[in-house]
Amino acid sequence: MKDYRVLVIGPRRGLIDELRERHIPFSIWQNRHVFNVSAGQKSVIAPFWNSAEKNREQVRKSFPGQRFTHVIAGTEASVLPATVARRQVGARLANAATGTRCRDKLHMKQHLAGFGIPMTRFLEDSPSQDPKQVFAELGAPVVRKYRKSSGGRGLTLLERPQDYLPGDHGDCILERYINAPEASVESFINNGAIQFANITSYHSKGYCNFVPAVLDKALSDTLLAMNERVISALGIVWGMTHLEVYLTENGPLFGEVALRPPGGYIMNAISHAWDFNPWAAFVAMELGEAFNFPEHASQFAASEVLYPGAGVVSAVRGKSRVLDEQGVREFRLKVKVGELLPARTGFGHDTGYVVHASASPEERLALHELIKRELIIELAAPEVAD
Predict the structure, then answer these.
(1) Domain range holding 324?
(2) d(Cα 126, Cα 121) in Å, to the nearest integer?
(3) Pick from 203, 143, 196: which is nearest to 172 by CA?
(4) What is the C-alpha separation between 205 and 360, in angstroms, rounded?
């Protein structure tokens, strides 16, 4: 085994499990307490900054004089800190501009627009923008979202110019609203070449993902070609990407791309659909190693993300019914009766998940409908004190 030493910024469970399985020594920088550490393993809890200088200072403070062969970013917020940290700790280097563009939606779209990537109209959010001009150019409603967020966090719909109120203008991007089905492409990249790509269909955005998507060949080829152009234009040489697209009647439009593994338990669904460990593949790409990817999916999988809404959990029904289904591969419920659930702040906010796999797309859809019908988390309004 090579003499690896890895710094993980923004740890994910599958990533940590794979490093431990391979006995690769690693340290962790997390922005909140997520993982318990093993004896002798260093874990630092500190903010991820949007400032390169603040990230450099954090690395100097948290890992003084330490050297690492690789720095791996597992989450959206950790992409920029990882880009900065690589130079300081002597790790395998990535293009700094690539890291910035993959973290900042405005810079990403401005750069890719120059390569002719089809996308929805967008504007920089700034105090100088005239609300009426914004709506004249983008139409209604206008999507306003943070440039450096993921999973729908901070996204708002502005219906009228009067709704365009002062806010964190410099931190947001404005886009034309697109009402269309969505999909994503997950890619594993090594030595500047895509080694494997999967297309995921968002059957219900934020709640149900189908892996792999069942699309006609022409559309699949178009999505894979767009994915290749985006990765090339951004200069991504290794790692894993998660590209989101809108499937409009006039053809697919680029949404955004992330330089890290996807959320929504898509990694779990990939493992069951394609019969390989995507976290092992991700680590291999990060370390510059070869990996044996399958040529064809063996099953049709889905990840069902559970979140019933805001309220007090009064009952959970149908759990045993779902567990009795042969196609169910993973099931975790993170909520209990009596628990108060707040409004959902993003797609990464959930109360559990189900991952299932079937022999055909029809069976997958039927199992999805059964779970949707049978697994019920009942809510009651919270009591109000007199």
Answers:
(1) 301-380
(2) 16
(3) 143
(4) 21
For 18-49, what is each residue's pLDDT tens digit? 999 999 999 999 998 877 766 567 899 999 99
- Exposure of 54 by Cβ count < 10 A (0-12 exposed, 13-18 middle, 19+ buried)? middle
Q: Within its chain, how far is the Cα of 78 from the centroid? A: 12
The whole-model pTM stands at 0.93
H helix or E strand, kind and range, residue 361: helix 361-374
d(CA 64, CA 49): 18
User: What is the residue type of 46?
Assistant: A
Query: What's at 254, amino acid-wise?
Result: F
**Do residue 210 and residue 149 come from a single domain?**
no
- The distance from CA 288 to its chain's CA centroid, rounded to whole angstroms, is 22
d(CA 175, CA 145): 8
DSSP label of 154: T
Which of 140, 139, 138, 141 lies closest to 124, judged by CA?
A: 138
Please check whether residues 86 and 148 belong to one and the same domain.
Answer: no
Assign residue 250 a region (left: φ > 0; alpha: ψ between -120 and 50; beta: otherwise): alpha
Q: How far apart are CA 16 and CA 33, in angstroms?
A: 14
pLDDT in tens, 165-215: 765 556 888 999 999 999 999 999 999 999 999 999 999 999 999 999 999
Query: Rounded CA gap, 70 and 84, in Å?
Result: 12
Would 107 be classed as within a structural domain?
Answer: no
CB-based contact 48:78 (threshold 8 Å): yes
231: burial class by Cβ within 10 Å (0-12, 13-18, 19+)? Answer: buried
Rg over CA atoms, the chain: 21
According to DSSP, the residues that pair with 211 across neighbouring strands are 301
Residue listed under structure tokens 């003084």: 64
Tokens 């079937």 identify what position?
A: 358
In a domain, 75, yes or no: yes
